[in-house]
Structure formats: structure tokens, C-alpha cells
UniProtKB/TrEMBL annotation:
SUPFAM superfamilies: P-loop containing nucleoside triphosphate hydrolases (SSF52540). Belongs to the ABC transporter superfamily. Macrolide exporter (TC 3.A.1.122) family. GO terms for molecular function: ATP binding; ATP hydrolysis activity; transmembrane transporter activity. Keywords: Antibiotic resistance, ATP-binding, Cell membrane, Membrane, Nucleotide-binding, Transmembrane, Transmembrane helix, Transport. One of its GO terms (biological process) is response to antibiotic. The keyword Mitochondrion does not apply. Residues 3-227 form the ABC transporter domain. CDD domains: ABC_MJ0796_LolCDE_FtsE. This is Putative ABC transport system ATP-binding protein. SMART domains: AAA (SM00382). One of its GO terms (cellular component) is membrane protein complex.
Length: 227
């Protein structure tokens, strides 16, 4: 399993202000699987993503990501997991002052094993893979919403992460561009054997999933197999 969460409990606050958010989550995701997570607003989906990505610390239960236990882990382990995880957000979060190509290159700067020209080449390849070979030198404001989200998909995958965590990536897009963007994400993830956990309220994209899980009131309520 790439993601193996067992009996995870998580609360915000302390003392009389404690607010339990996750109340015993069990979730196991295999390598290369694409899992969509739905559920009402406030049910803990984003909180769960941040724990799995090593951005938030849990102290109860078990969260084994890529073979590393994140519960009560040290900073080094969390950094290791963060480096192997790519994020896609609701808003594309691109830097306005950089072109599409520069935005993708920037994330590759952490990859010390690549030379500058290898980074450029990799970024160009990724932008071509999301259908933006003719938009590489455009600034974000000159791109449509769907194109910007495709740049953020290229950026998230450029470092060849083992896991992609996506938080409502189609929420700011119209139906067609949202569907196109996640379809591209799915194809690339399958080619690169990347595991995806994607939070969404968008029932129109459920068809890209290998599996859909629903979070409700801090529990994984239902697991639905896709045909
Ligand atoms: P979802 O992504 O399913 O909408 P969240 O994980 O964002 O749910 O939030 C779950 C619950 O935790 C909500 O009640 C929310 O108000 C609360 N919460 C989220 N982030 C924080 C925070 N940083 N501090 C305190 N409470 C928070």
C-alpha cells in the first residue's frame, strides 16, 4: 500500500474546546490507484489530506505513507514524504510574475540531481503533456482557468512524485475544462504510476476514479467500487 491509514483520530483545539474531526479513519490505497473522496463540507477531507501529506501531525492511530509511519514521526520523515508528494489545489496557486514554464521549473529547483537544462527540458515535456506546448511562455493571467489548472497539474507531476494530493481541483472550472483537466491528470498518473487521492464535490468527475470513498462525520462512510 502506498497510503495506509488505520484508526486515525484527529482533533483541533484542546481542553473544553476540543473538536474531534477524524474519528477512526481506515483508508488503504494501492500504488497507481486513483481514489476520489467526497463528503459534506466540514467532514474532515482537507484535514485528512494534510495529515497524509505530512503537513499536519496526527498523534493517534497509524498513518503509513510510502512505508513511513507519520504518526509521532520526526521532522525528517515528514520532509521526506512532502518531497514525494505533489499538490493540486482549488485555485491554481501559480506565481503571477512567472510564465507557465518558469512556474513549472521553479518546483524542479528542489531536485538537485537535475541540471538547469534538464529542468527546462522536463518542464517543457510536462507542459506539452498537458497540451500547452504553445502556451509555455504565457503568464498566468493570459491563460484560461482550465489552462492554468493544467499548468498546475504539470507542476505537480514534474518532480515525479509518488503521490498526488488534490483538493477540489475542478471547483473553480466550468464543466468541460474541469473534466478535461482531470482526464489529463488521470492519463499522466497512469503513465507515471502515480497514486492519486483527490477530494471533490464535483460528481461529474467521478468517472475518472478507480474507487470513490465518502467521508462523513469523521468516518469513511462508504466505499463504492467503480465499474
Ligand atoms: P472538509 O475539507 O471536509 O470541508 P476540513 O478538513 O476543512 O473539512 O474541516 C473539518 C473541520 O475542522 C471543520 O469543522 C473545520 O471548521 C475544522 N477545522 C479545519 N481547519 C481548522 C483549523 N486550522 N483550526 C480549527 N479547526 C479547523
Amino acid at each position: 500500500m502506498v497510503i495506509d491509514v488505520h484508526n486515525l483520530n484527529f482533533s483541533f483545539g484542546s481542553g473544553s474546546l476540543t473538536q474531534p474531526v477524524l474519528k477512526g479513519i481506515d483508508l488503504a490505497i494501492r500504488k497507481g490507484e486513483i481514489v476520489l473522496m467526497t463528503g459534506p463540507s466540514g467532514s474532515g477531507k482537507t484535514t485528512l489530506l494534510t495529515i497524509i501529506g505530512g503537513l499536519r501531525q496526527a498523534s493517534n492511530g497509524s498513518v503509513v505513507i510510502l512505508g513511513e509511519q507519520l504518526v509521532n514521526s520526526n521532522e525528517q520523515t515528514k520532509v521526506k514524504i512532502r518531497r514525494q508528494t505533489g499538490y493540486i489545489f482549488q485555485q491554481h496557486n501559480l506565481l503571477k510574475s512567472l510564465t507557465a514554464l518558469q512556474n513549472v521549473c521553479m518546483t524542479l529547483e528542489l531536485q538537485r540531481d537535475l541540471t538547469e537544462s534538464e529542468r527546462q527540458y522536463r518542464a517543457q515535456q510536462m507542459l506539452a503533456a498537458v497540451g500547452l506546448e504553445d502556451r509555455m511562455h504565457y503568464f498566468p493571467e493570459a491563460l484560461s482557468g482550465g489552462q492554468r489548472q493544467r499548468v498546475s497539474i504539470a507542476r505537480a507531476l514534474a518532480g515525479r512524485p509518488k503521490i498526488i494530493l488534490a483538493d477540489e481541483p475542478t471547483a473553480s472550472l466550468d464543466r468541460q475544462s474541469g473534466h478535461d483537466a482531470v482526464e489529463i491528470l488521470k492519463q499522466l498518473a497512469k503513465e507515471l504510476n502515480t497514486t492519486i487521492l483527490l477530494v471533490t464535490h464535483d460528481y461529474r468527475i467521478l468517472d475518472i476514479a478507480d474507487r470513490v470513498v465518502e467521508l462523513e462525520d469523521g468516518f469513511v462512510k462508504a466505499v463504492e467500487k467503480q465499474e
